[in-house]
Amino acid sequence: xxxxxxxxxxxxxxxxxxxxxxxxxxxxxxxxxxxxxxxxxxxxxxxxxxxxxxxxxxxxxxxxxxxxxxxxxxxxxxxxxxxxxxxxxxxxxxxxxxxxxxxxxxxxxxxxxxxxxxxxxxxxxxxxxxxxxxxxxxxx
Length: 140
Fold this sequence. Notes:
By secondary structure, this protein is of the alpha+beta class. The chain has four helices and five strands, in the order βααβββαβα. The longest helix has 15 residues.
């Protein structure tokens, strides 16, 4: 099964197909962020994401073989039509394998299909990926 980028607006979204524990997705995302020294703690990120959910924001979850292996927040800046991408994390076993670039490209494509034309990468890694993949401006 290929990597998928799935937009969620609730940490209770049933993404994990096998019989899952209650709050399993939230627990796995928490652990994913806790394992990433480049990001705030899982508790901090998920708290910000949940606040964003209340305002109609999304978290994209990278699913592979029924497991969340990546995540990035996709927030509306509230002032322009741009989407701000931040809090990118990838499972430790998948780091340095270009999963982050593939995942960002999937998120980008999904948002462009929704009509988004401008993106603001909120950290250096996302900016690097988007620059290398020429994704900072949609031509059109």
